[in-house]
Structures are given as structure tokens and as C-alpha cells.
Amino acid sequence: MLGRGFIAAAALACALLATTTARAQQTLEAVKARGQLVCGIGTGVAGFGLPDSRGVWQGMDVDLCRGLAVAIFNDANKVRFVPLSSSTRFTALGAGEVDVLFRTSTQTMLRDVTLGLRHVTTYFYDGHGFIVRTGSVQKVAEMRDATICLVQGTTNEQVTADYFRSISTPFRPLLFERTDQATAALQAGRCDSFGTDASQLAGVRSTMAKPADWVILPERFSKEPYGAYIRRDDQQWFDVVRWYTTALIEAEEQGITQANAEEMRRTSPSPNARRLLGVTPELGEALKLDRSWAYNVVRALGNYGEIYDRAFGPETSIDLPRGPNRLWTQGGLIYALPMR
Question: Which region is the signal sequence (predicted)?
């Protein structure tokens, strides 16, 4: 009797687990049924996501959203952008208002284990810094009693407080909902500095009326690995977003570009390139995507390096060196997991 009862209970538990899993793993199917990806992005930071003069969103996070739409639909226009503030982004994702966040969101332990969300794959490495008026200070430790603009709901709040506490130096935080608000306050003289991740500071500086009046101090005070976020317990969607991001890096590692992807698909003898470009179908089949999903993405938007350069490269007003965002073969931290 005990044995039969245990077996019955175990069978019921397995059935409930299967039902729960099936219910949770619906994002890819929902996106396909809707015919559109809904992507959470920032409210406006040059380099990551900012409308151009025509009102069209441009930047690295925006391109990553478009590329995911290409992987699913082979159409970069099948995406709807939802600008979200730092304080509302995770709530919106958890509530199902967006399918994925590509929004300069750092992976931290507490975010990872308490929000019911998952950081997918790091696509950008950064660190907290400070921007000040040129000639005002040489080091952050000199900013005693300074008023520092910060964006509410970011890791930068805690990083700034932790640092000044560690050197027993008082400061006055001035909190804002959005980066553009903090930037406006800085330029208006309401604060002495703005503290956020260095790449975002570079974007902010590039949009200022007189960029030469401002300098980003060289010190860095944190590790800020950005990655896409999705809702937890959706393994299929996790796989799609993870390997889509990885494919962009893999394409750069293999020298596959927007310009040569078609030729590489026809002529490359490399098994890795042939798998990535869909000459053989196994990668697409494993993700329940078209066999040419990665090829379509590179043809539409380029590889990781091309996306980076379009957002931050020497031809832009930001001109942010790749630093840790170089490939691992070039001394950076960007590394594609094996796609086989």
C-alpha cells in the first residue's frame, strides 16, 4: 500500500511539474503567435538606445532587439520597443509587459535569485565611474560633500554609497528617474557629478552641448556585466536568447560579417561556419528556429563587433574603445561558447 501510494504521489507530482513547465515555457510560442517581439529598452542613452533625428531608435541594445526579431521572423521590423526606467524595468518584465530586456542591466546575485528573472548571457562589460566638469577634481576621493546625480533603481546608487562610506567621505545623492533628467541637472549645476557606468557616461557626454567641458574620471568602482533578462522558468526562451547572443560573438570570432556572410555560406569549408550559417540544420532545429536564423541575423545587422562599432566605434561621436568588450583572442572578455 505504501509503495502504491508513493508511486501515485510521485506520478501526480510529475504531472503537476509537467503542467507548470508547459505553462511557463510559452514565450517563444507567444511571440510567434503575436507576430512581433516586445523588447524592453532604456529611456534614452546614446550608444545603447536613443531616437535619431527621424525618431528611429538606434544603439546597441536596440540592434540586439532587432536581431532577435530577425532570428525568429527574419524581419528586423517585427519588434516593438518599450522604453523602461531603471526602477520599472524588472517589474514590467515580470508582469509580462515585455518578452525580454536588452537594457544595460547588470547581473548581480540578488537580482538573480530574488526577482523571479534570469540574466541570460553577458554581452557588455562595464564599470561604474563619474563625470565632472573639466578641471574641477582629479580623483573621486576629492569630491567631499559633493552633490552627485544618480539614477534611481540602478546598481550605481549602492556602488556610490559604498565607495564614499569606505573612505569616510560624506556626499549628497540627488536621485532621478531617468538618465536624461540626471544629465540635465548636471549641466544646470544642480549637482557636481553624475555617477553611472562609464559607457553610459561616454554616451551622455557625446550629447552634451559642450562635451569638452566635461571629463570622465579614469577610476572604476564596480563590475557591471550587462546581459538580457527574461522571466525565470522558461528554458526554451532562455536557450533562444542565450544562443542568439552567442551567435553574434561566434560570427565575429569566425570572421563572418554582414558583407561576406553570403559568400561564407556558399564556400566556407569550416564545419563551425557551416553549422552557424545554416548549411547544416542542427542548430536551428535545436532552437525550433529556421535553419538560417543566425545567417539571417548577421546579414541584417552584422556580427558582434559590427554592432558595437555602429553604436560606439570611431565613426560615432562617442568613440568608446572596446576595452574588455574585445574578443578574448584580442585580450578582451567577449567569448562565444561552442556552438556544436
Answer: 1-24
